Amino acid sequence: MAKATETILEIDLNALAHNYNYITSKLNPKTKVLAVVKAFGYGSEAVEVAKELIKLNVSYFAVAYASEGEALRNAGIETPILVLHPLPENFDVIVNRCLEPSIYSEKMLNEFISFAEHKNQTNYPIHLKFNTGLNRLGFASKAVSDITHILASTESIKVRSVFSHLAASEDASEAAFTKQQLKEFAVLSEALSEILPYPFLKHTLNTSGIINFPEAQYDMVRTGIGLYGFGNDVQETANLKPVATLKTVISQIHTIAAGESVGYNRAFIAPQAMQTATLPIGHADGISRGYGNGKGWVSIHGQKAPIVGNVCMDMIMVDISKIECKEGDEVIVFGNAPTAEALSEVIHSIPYELLTAISQRVKRVVCRK
Ligand SMILES: *Cc1c(COP(=O)(O)O)cnc(C)c1O
Hints:
Elements: E1 8-12, H1 13-24, E2 32-36, H2 38-42, H3 46-55, E3 60-63, H4 66-74, E4 81-83, H5 91-96, E5 100-103, H6 106-118, E6 124-131, E7 139-140, H7 144-152, E8 157-164, H8 175-195, E9 201-203, H9 207-212, E10 220-223, H10 234-238, E11 244-249, E12 252-256, E13 261-262, E14 268-269, E15 274-279, E16 297-300, E17 303-308, E18 316-319, E19 330-334, H11 340-345, H12 351-357, E20 363-367
Parallel strand pairs: 1-20, 2-3, 2-10, 3-4, 4-5, 5-6, 6-7, 6-8, 8-9
Antiparallel strand pairs: 1-11, 11-19, 12-15, 13-14, 15-18, 16-17, 17-18
Helix pairs in contact: 1-3
Pyridoxal-5'-phosphate (PLP) binds next to helix 9 and strand 10.
């Protein structure tokens, strides 16, 4: 890879392939993989990621919103796409682009059936989402019989899958709760199997679910964060490779005298003479103000350069007093070291948030390392 000459997010497709192969090595050979590529592929590059995953034999994609599925279709992707959070407003795009809605309430089910009938659809694939404890989206388990009456009344739609989502699959201390969720899913999905006159897929594991509860993999698993290199577990993360590396450059170096201030609101006052480097990346690029004032740091020639003062919209200043470097030198914000996980930890966040916060202003550069 050439050295960065501006702020870029490098997307390593070989790391993605490595992670996909590692995750599938934990599954039964017949278990299908649904790759979650919502939020621009967890902030990476959804289209390139999706195309690579197709080569690796992925069965399904999931996005949060219909517009994200539309973008994949516009890029020529023909793999089935589950839309996790459709709204009636989006039904038109969904049906026009052959996207498959997650249906999570009776109201939604009735509305989607009316829409599908109006569009003269038959057997349009839908996915029934059940709430087993996350209390976010989903039918209650006890809704099974009401739903089956509605389903039996129309030919316009067909249940392609039944699924649920775990609330705390990464927390060993919540294993009893997760097992209860899995049990509830087993019961409700079995009840539907007995009622519906055709087979459908069942799925309930996310990345940490795959790692901690592989016995519940059913027909398919939904993996997101693991594909991008994080396992919510030190040991598992060690077996994965970060897909995204955020790089920038040194724009200008300043020598600051003792007592001088750096940045907005004069939040930093130099206790002694020092050198700072100004970098072309700020909170508008996804580096939250929380990383300012020494909490966050970047890596320059392998050495830690703490952020000095407040994070600006388009820039940060870092302390390079102990680092030999010059204007134009490359800077690593996250990647292998520090990882997005280590950096996000300093503001009590998680890699999911840091990765997806990297704004669309930052150029994505796809590579194979
Ligand atoms: C985002 C999401 C996933 C992926 O979870 P990871 O922890 O990233 O593997 C799976 N299922 C649903 C319903 C989701 O919203």
